[in-house]
Amino acid sequence: MQTIDDPGAALAVLHDPAFVVPPVPAATHGIAWLRSAVGRFSDGDAYTRRRALSESLLSTVDPAALRDAAASSPHLHPVQLLCTALGLPSSSRTTLATVRVVAAAYHPDTGDEPAADEAVRALVDLCGGTPDETTAARIGLLVQACDATAALIARARATGLEAALRDTPPVPATKRMATRPVTLTAGHPDLVDPSGTHAEPGNRTAAADPADRDRPEVRVEPGGRPGVRVGPDGRPGVHVEPGERSGTWDEAGRIRVEAGEVVRVSLQGIPFGAGPRRCPGRAHAIAIAEGALSASASENPGGGR
């Protein structure tokens, strides 16, 4: 598996409909059911429907209220804050521990699946006992906020929020699979906003919040498709980790990704992703982090950033 760590190349993959999330098998219970029922591992109509469920749930949560809750209760974990905002029980740390078990195994082959199966059953009960897509969406929001938002807060306390978002994204990478052969191309003249919003040819779009500022310029092909940004050494930005297959770039700065090939896409500089799968909880995560940081500043007004 090759890793694409240049922001332009990453945007090319994240925007291109030829790249999809690696599929997971259908399942009826446990962590495998959760993966098969959330938007995170879906594509096509199922993804559209399941993302809409997540967005609907998040629409009931005011980011400003989350920010205030995080500021007034800095001892609470983001999962506990989000549980309260979603109307779920949050007083017991058992809920947080259960979400952590699920989060550790959320991606295939990453955690203790038997323990995660039990934890998913407990979370289904917490959400009303019906294992449907709405319940999966609620659990998915808790799971995806769990480690990522806590990591964002911890890093932001050391470096500041903007630097943490830009330099050490809480989710360092994602994976995509090519559904057909794709050639990524370097060095086109138009610009795209790294937040994921396409610019008109020849125009730069404005950054909307701390997550979108201070990003490197990114090139897109005429017609709006992102291309590959060339690195300081003049070569397209693909980083290959030990044991991974090296990409083969031609003299024109092109690389071919074969059908069925899975690539690891770095999210450095684009911490909430881009394109149609951009994180729907972006505003909420930033709000929780801002609230937690304001509480830290109040407790230690003379220190830190």
TrEMBL record:
Residues 167-251 are annotated as: Disordered. Residues 223-235 have a biased composition (Low complexity). SUPFAM superfamilies: Cytochrome P450 (SSF48264). PROSITE patterns: CYTOCHROME_P450. Coiled coil: none annotated. InterPro entries: Cyt_P450_CS, Cyt_P450_sf. It comes from the Bacteria. Residues 210-222, 236-251 have a biased composition (Basic and acidic residues). This is Cytochrome P450.
